[in-house]
Design brief:
about 230 residues; alpha+beta; six-stranded mixed sheet; five-stranded mixed sheet; about 15% helix
Length: about 230
């Protein structure tokens, strides 16, 4: 019998609020430029063509309220996002309207970005990986099960406060691509699995974080995430 060279790392897990269950994370997919106002502030065209997709490693998930400021950057930015949790596998590409059937829960998270490194990568037409996929770059709240809350309505508010000041605010109806749109598109590129998380994109108002800043991210009526940059 073959043995591992070293102990396998633990599977990252996100708790479900109000349930004695955890969500084991398989992959993290992220949607870029999914709010028109954010696309404009980043100098990108606003268009409903194909969703912009990038990924973070599963162990980028961070659950502790003390959030470490990452190395290698002087310009760490916050991006508040609804987080979608998949509880079923997709067996091949999905047809429009089938995506929500995979969803088992929702939460709120931050897509943290080393903006200075991202700008360098964009300028040189290089991948964004080091600006998006670093340790603790995906702080996320406890999830709420869809059986307990249903699917969020378009008028559900998404917002972020830094040190008590509202920085980002919008509603889910302002997303260019909805949850079903994104899952259908992803299913043509990847085998979607139970355990996948999808960060759905951020509204305008992204800005820098500094050590000592306190944050509160809210998907109203569903999830609340708070902590401090250390």
């Amino acid at each position: 019998m073959r043995a591992d060279l070293f102990p396998a790392p633990p599977v990252p897990r996100v708790p479900f609020a109000g349930r004695d269950q955890d969500f084991p994370v398989h992959r993290i997919y992220c949607v870029g430029r999914n709010f028109a106002d954010h696309a404009k502030e980043m100098g990108a065209p606003v268009e409903r063509g194909t969703p912009v997709i990038f990924m973070k490693p599963a162990d980028a998930v961070h659950l502790h309220p003390r959030l470490p400021f990452p190395s290698g950057t002087r310009d760490l930015h916050h991006e508040v996002e609804m987080v979608v949790a998949l509880g079923r596998d997709a067996h091949g590409p999905l047809a429009p309207g089938e995506g929500l059937g995979l969803v088992c829960g929702y939460g709120v998270g931050l897509d943290l970005t080393r903006r200075d490194l991202q700008a360098i990568a964009k300028d040189k037409r290089l991948p964004w990986d080091v600006s998006k996929g670093f340790d603790a770059s995906a702080p996320v709240s406890a999830l709420r099960h869809v059986d307990d809350i249903g699917h969020p309505a378009p008028d559900t508010a998404l917002w972020l406060e830094i040190n008590g000041e509202r920085r980002q605010a919008s509603t889910l109806g302002e997303m260019i691509f909805g949850v079903d749109d994104v899952l259908v598109h992803l299913s043509t590129l990847f085998r979607l699995r139970a355990g996948d998380l999808v960060f759905m994109g951020t509204p305008a108002g992204v800005a820098a974080l500094q050590p000592g800043d306190r944050y509160r991210a809210v998907l109203e009526g569903i999830a609340d995430l708070g902590g401090e940059i250390v």
